[in-house]
């Protein structure tokens, strides 16, 4: 067999063996591949760490500011929660208008709103005074009570400085806004709540002055002076609820006498000291009404009036 024949036999065999052998990268290609794999792994690990850190920060903020209510509410809590739903819609609309929230912020606040309402329901149900009626001091003596025209009333210092459902819900929403949004957004909402509280206080004082004027026939100067004194000195725990003015205008709530007596004539002081229906406080209702009602919240059935 000549050399050409040998080559014609060996060459196909060598090609077949080479094809069957596994392909191997050269040292340079293998090094580049290893670098790419290490870089990919490092990128995945960094992204996972960032996501875990972000989740940890969010969970910490949410856990501090709004407690997630686990499990179903009990009947009392559920009742408060249902009554809070229309109030929540009003407060969310207020926050949206005051804080100029964009679509993403609106959705985020709405998502936290239900937890805020549930937290408020728990607060209302867990506070003994919110579960029923809070009475003031004595009527005709410390701790004594009485019935006037079918309504149970108490005379003496107001019995509670509790917050209304609207105030509690506003505070809980304010905590969420402070935790999730920029500081300037939180400041806008806090200022609006403070302004609303101040306006409500002014409204109550105007009603008190109107009642005093009806009984004591005040001059314009007396009305102005007494109103300013009440605005500056009326304690929050003695601030009556608006239902008192809407239920019966004959009752005068608890007020500091040092805001009144120095500004009265002697004859007016005598009338004041002999009024049988002064310093009256009714029971505390967490769903305090406004002149326009409870904004969709079902009304509490009134106590039956006497004949």
What do these coordinates show?
With 307 residues, this protein is mainly alpha-helical. It has a domain at 73-281. Helices cover 60% and strands 3% of the residues. A 3-stranded antiparallel sheet has the order 1-2-3, with no helix packed on it. Strand 1 (146-148) and strand 2 (151-155) form a beta hairpin. Helix 3 packs antiparallel against helix 4 and helix 6 crosses helix 7. The longest helix is centred in the first third of the chain and has 39 residues, at 27-65. The model is unreliable at 15-25, 59-66, 129-161 and 291-307 (pLDDT under 50).
Q: What is the helical fraction, as a range of percent? A: 55-70%
Instruction: Please work out how many helical segments DSSP would assign.
Output: 9
What general form does the structure show? elongated
| Class from secondary-structure proportions | mainly alpha
How much β-strand is present in the residues? under 5%
Uncertain residue ranges = 15-25, 59-66, 129-161, 291-307
Distance N terminus to C terminus? 138 Å
Main sheet specs: 3 strands, antiparallel
Q: What is the averaged pLDDT score?
A: 73
Total beta strands? 3
Main sheet: which strands, in order across?
A: 1-2-3
Round the Cα radius of gyration to an integer and report it: 36 Å
Order of helices and strands: HHHHEEHHHHHE
